[in-house]
Amino acid sequence: MATKGIKKFVSYPCLMISQNNHRFFLTSIPVSDIFPHCFVSSRDADNLQGFQRQLSKQRAEDISKYLNQGSGSIPTNIVLSAQEGAKIVYSSKNKTISFERIDKAFLVLDGQHRLWGYQTCLEQFSKDHRVPLSIYENLTRAEETRLFIDINTKQIGVPAALLLDIKQLAQIESERDTTLRELFDGIKQNPDLNFSGMLSPAKSVAGKVSRVTFNRAVGQALDSSILQGLDKKKRLSLLTNYLKAYENVLDDQKLLTRSAFLEAIFDVFEQAIRQSLLSHKNAKTESIQKVISPIAKYSYADTTLRSVGEVKKAVRSALAGSVSIDPNML
Asked: Which of 102, 211, 117 is nearest to 163 (CA)?
């Protein structure tokens, strides 16, 4: 419904694009003048005709906070389908589109969370950002639904491993991110470790360990008092000794590429190192090897040991003991 005192029709500059049988317009409109005229076809509200997922308010809140930052920007277009009631008109002479300000003028095909994020930013921080838009015209409901399916099945997200790999370039690494990246890179560059050839820095590859898997596994050990008390060089040295010990005792070194197994051996990292110090007065490869050798006796191909929890339980049962640690012993 048009607000009293505000023009019912409004025009904005645009770029018209034709692709096959479709025509759409690239434009940007302040969120205050587009959000009130948009709607989402929800499966909850319309089980027969609706096709979009339910809104996550937390995600919209996160987008709002990001947009409120001085450096926050979202260049990605929100995709809308102009409904018949919008009476959308394109002027080739002025390179503008005009539409009627009415309720449900535009159906959101893609970007509902971003749109809600823009609106939330307006409500919470009084920032009326211009929203990048792609607006389709003259689509049937079937065409709208097919377009929604195409958008959500043919787009491929950036691999999480690559995002971790380039965080340093973006200068947004946390201290923990930096430590894990340095450990990953240090292991990757070590020719004495077979495990170095099993690492994949920028993407997930079958039979290899990505940064995501590495960080999840080794991140458990970072929280231990053992690694927290060491400098970069000694952290990497201890991690190298630990992995080399497993390479020496395992008949099948490919076990190290199994995320469940890798997480399991780092779940007992502190316990194994403390036992090595207690029993052998050091944490060298040979000493750690003696401590963890019982772990190699399990059959990790057993169908009962498929989940991370099950493998961790099996690995834990092979170790026992606790002792204080002196970094000078490493």
From this structure: 211
Q: Confirm if 80 and 142 have CB atoms less than 8 A apart.
A: no
Low-confidence stretches of the chain (pLDDT beneath 50): 1-3, 43-44, 47-48, 50-51, 303, 321-330
pLDDT tens, position by position, 33-60:
999 999 987 544 554 454 455 677 888 8
231-256 pLDDT tens trace: 999 999 999 999 999 999 998 899 89
Diameter of the chain measured on Cα atoms? 85
Pairing of strands 209-210, 15-19: unpaired
pTM reported for the whole predicted model: 0.56
Handedness of CA 73, 77, 82, 87 (dihedral sign): positive
Q: What is the per-residue pLDDT for 1?
A: 41
